[in-house]
Amino acid sequence: NTRNLRGITLGDLLPDFAYDSSQGPSTLKQYFNGNWGLLCSHPDDYTPICTTELGELARLDNLGEFAKRNVKVIGLSCNDVNSHHGWIQDIEAYSGERVNYPIIADKDREIACQLGMLSSDDLDKAGLPLTVRSVFVIGPDMAIKLTLTYPASTGRNFVEILRVIDSLQLTAQHACATPVNWVKGEKACIVPTVSNEQAQTKFPKGFAIEELPSGKGYLRFTPDPSA
């Protein structure tokens, strides 16, 4: 498999791929097991940016940032299991953190092809495409809630990814959306499909309507319903 077969869009169900990994074989559904999931691909083992990324992922994981959000983390690249085992030693030496999450060995590129992860520019020594820096946030229902794609030259910001997970989890439970630069604990916006009368019941902490020239009253802020 050397070409992307399809893209995956928001709301699609993640196929239940069987895989081998640095922690042995499993399936994605069995691994996530009804939790939220974070699937991150990286271009190649033993490369500088990937080493810093997976070290930071391990640090946040060990701090409990994912566990307290009921998120299970898993990595992926086209390297084999032996390569992952050796590289993990480098990640742990560099970061000072133990890597407790599995890294999928997608050496046949089956998962990467299905999820549209393969690069058209970055190739391995055999001329086969490497995976880009893809991020998938998966809900407890195995549906795709968010996708992000970074080029090989740009490392990911996992603090931003945690922020997005906070937003996704908040808005999955409440009829609100999160405004620009929102972080957990700040005011959220009430979605337009909720009337002011309904909002009084749904948001007992109250809400404020921003006065704007149009007078349409669509910009309504409410304290973080989860706080």
TrEMBL record:
InterPro entries reported for this sequence: AhpC/TSA, Peroxiredoxin_AhpC-typ, Peroxiredoxin_C, PRX_1cys, Thioredoxin-like_sf, Thioredoxin_domain
* A GO molecular-function descriptor: peroxiredoxin activity
**In its keyword annotation, does this UniProt entry include Oxidoreductase?**
yes
Keywords assigned: Antioxidant, Oxidoreductase, Peroxidase, Redox-active center
Residues annotated as catalytic? 50 (cysteine sulfenic acid (-soh) intermediate)
**What's the protein here called?**
Thioredoxin-like protein
Instruction: Give the highest taxon in the source lineage.
Output: Eukaryota
